[in-house]
Amino acid sequence: MDKVTDAAPKTAGLRGVAAATSSISDVNGEKGELIYQGYNIHDLAQYSTFEEVVFLLWHKRLPTAAELSQLKQSLSELYALPKEVLTLMRQFPRDSEPMDVLRTAVSALEFYDKSARNISRDNALATATKLTAQFPALVATSDRLRRGLEPVQPDPKQNIATNFLYLLKGEKPSEHDATVFDKCLILHADHELNASTFSARVIAGTLATIYAGVTGAIAALSGPLHGGANTAVMKTLLEIGSVDNVENFIKKALAEKRKIMGFGHAVYRTEDPRATHLRQFSKEMGERAGDTKWYEMSQRVEEVMMKEKGLFANVDFFSASAYYSMGIPLDLFTPIFAVSRISGWTGHILEQYADNKLIRPRADYVGERNRTYVPLDKR
Ligand code: COA
Fold first, then answer.
1. Is the pLDDT of residue 290 over 90?
2. Ligand 1, atom 4: closest residue by C-alpha
3. Which of 129, 204, 284, 324 is deepest in the core (most CB within 10 A)?
4. Do 248 and 183 share a structural domain?
């Protein structure tokens, strides 16, 4: 029998491997810099809107006023879910995970799109527009149905951020909440070849449909090491319970080799630039809700994690307390990530289709070779 080769893969987790070319976004992990199509995330968070960013990710440039208004018009005309999908969603178990509902509903949307298999740029853009328009209703509707409430009809006059909060709560959000939420959507829109985006590109690379790529991306996002981390962060904060308990809790958890969700990053070696904004939103939302406890606890966790492990907070850490203070249920945090990331996923799928090569890496084989087959009755 040949010797088994060294078990350590050359590129574990594909760290540092460039598996695609892309102009959509870039992460500079050393500098803590994130750009979308060349624009710094700080500028976009300060001056832009989610719809403008959607256009930017899909078209590689900022829109003119007329183009932006056209995109908003197209999105708002598509806000409502097909009635067949709504009927289907009513059959889902009430206790389903919202990410599972989203994944299954997106997969089902393809049944009602007769041109789904047309992946020409124009048709793929139309599908991307439809999915981006319908994610808010998918997520909000799944929450309302499980609470025994009827879905709210989307308001075509509202942007995606306002519409989502309206569909979820049944009342128009304050301008402040809608603006903060819009900025959260900007901050989560894209992040280079993260696990879900890579999944989307691998699927699109087989020339499968956008629905297929997005369904796979949702599945990848749901894991606690990726988008699922924001829900896990809030669960940890609730488990800790008070600012006074933070230090002991974190030290004990680290001693038990538990990972503290919302910390560390595969690429950033300094502060995640998105966390800078989300920290501020967590503070503001806590103040507006008249309870800054979650923000204060988060700050303390951040200090202890820096002291104990030298790890920085990532995008998921402060988004958890910000959303919680907005009265959003814990298990919707990750679907909300998807409400934004659908723009990046579809941008990457469009880019993949435009210059496609099947993504088919190799594995470092660590199994045995030249084994002699032994018949069943001789083993
Ligand atoms: N809490 C405690 N320790 C952590 C940690 C965390 N959140 N993140 C990383 N570490 C530690 C690991 O235990 C490991 O320590 P060791 O060398 O003593 O074994 C070291 O830091 C490297 O971690 P590793 O998981 O190999 O690094 P990575 O680059 O693959 O990790 C993440 C990136 C995001 C998967 C990782 O930091 C993590 O699991 N974070 C928590 C989940 C999370 O917030 N995900 C959202 C990402 S945006």
1. yes
2. 259
3. 204
4. no
